[in-house]
Amino acid sequence: MKLPKQVRVVEVGPRDGLQNEPGTALPAQLKANLIDRLAACGLQHIEAAAFVHPKWVPQMANSSQVLQLITRHQHVNYSALTPNMQGLQRALQAEMDEVAVFGAASESFSQHNTNCSIAEGLQRFQPVVKTAHANGLRVRGYVSVVIDCPYEGAVAPQKVAEVSDALMQMGCYEVSLGDTIGTATPGRLQDMLDAVTQYVPTTYLAGHCHDTYGQALANIYAMLQAGVSCFDASVAGLGGCPYAHGASGNVATEDLVYLLHGLGIHTGVQLDRLIKVGQDISADLGRCNGSKVGSL
Ligand code: HMG
Ligand code: MG
To answer: Do the domain assignments include residue 202?
Structure first.
């Protein structure tokens, strides 16, 4: 069995993690400190913000302010979600390095999450990708509900493949496959990957595993064996999805890094520092630490 020698970890805690916190937006300074401390752990890609409608996701309302407060590091790629041109304009003003468009593989999730059909969403992304590229920004694509949808149940792998293909054709450099409600198990994940890789090579795929059913690390291991070498994770396992009731956070970054280092895979992340960051943000938010490694 051949595993990748190196894995790129995309830290999504400041976005996917914090977007689900109840109430109004957390103080911008607290978010900026978290982002700066994550950068100091050696994480080279941090999804720092979302330029979405503030009524839909109040926690992300102060994204522009957060970006003003962080200390930028050359080695870090700071990215943000941009569902449409308005989001992209805000991202350009905030001088993001990269943006992400996010589609879904089920019609109901697309409607709940972005108030449009899958096809309308893809249509909206076209000018976003084009304008981002014209401004020198790379664009990442997400596909949500790649295994199960909270409204429709099991999702056909072929649908995931078609949406992933459309995002790549549009110019995304990578597609992150979202197990939004964390119901995947390795066999089903492999079936989905078999369909997607008919269109998109594994080198352009990333895993985005929520850990609702405790399967994220097993699923990530299966994806590693299939040749995927980029994974999203959230410090202290923060988060969930506001449009997928009951979904818990992404795999904790600490637990992912522990697994990867144990397999001899290089990440560039300093685990001891990261554990401290996870403990501190959990304490700040009055939450249990969602990382097993960070709770020892
Ligand atoms: P809409 O209501 O259909 O938008 O929302 P619209 O174009 O009809 O505009 C309506 C109003 O929204 C207008 O304001 C616009 O200006 C405003 P009004 O005239 O009524 O005052 N508006 C905006 N304001 C700020 N920023 C914007 C923006 N766009 C329009 N970008 C929209 C469509 C997509 C904007 C909305 O549905 C939305 O914001 N959705 C975001 C949902 C979201 O953030 N979900 C969570 C992130 S995705 C996720 O977690 C999954 C992922 O982690 C992968 C996985 O786990 O599967 C990525
Ligand atoms: Mg997510």
So the answer is: yes
Q: Which amino acid belongs to residue 108? A: S
Residue 127 domain-assigned (yes or no): yes
Beta carbon of 125 within 6 Å of any ligand 1 atom: no
Among the bound ligands, name the one nearest to the CA of residue 50: 1
| Domains identified in the chain, total number | 1
* Closest protein CA for atom 33 of ligand 1: 114
Work out whether strand 138-144 and strand 230-233 pair parallel, antiparallel, or are unpaired. unpaired
**DSSP string for 37-70:** HHHTTT--EEEEEE-S-TTT-GGGTTHHHHHHHS
In the DSSP assignment, the letter for residue 201 is -
> Is 128 part of a structural domain of the chain?
yes
Query: How much is the pTM?
Result: 0.97
3-state secondary structure string across 24-38: CCCCHHHHHHHHHHH
Residue at 93: amino acid letter: Q
pLDDT in tens, 181-228: 999 999 999 999 999 999 999 999 999 999 999 999 999 999 999 999
Active site residue 288: no
| Structural domain boundaries enclosing 246 | 8-295
Give CA–CA dist 34/189, Å, rounded: 32
Q: With respect to residue 1, please indicate whether it lies within any of the assigned structural domains.
A: no
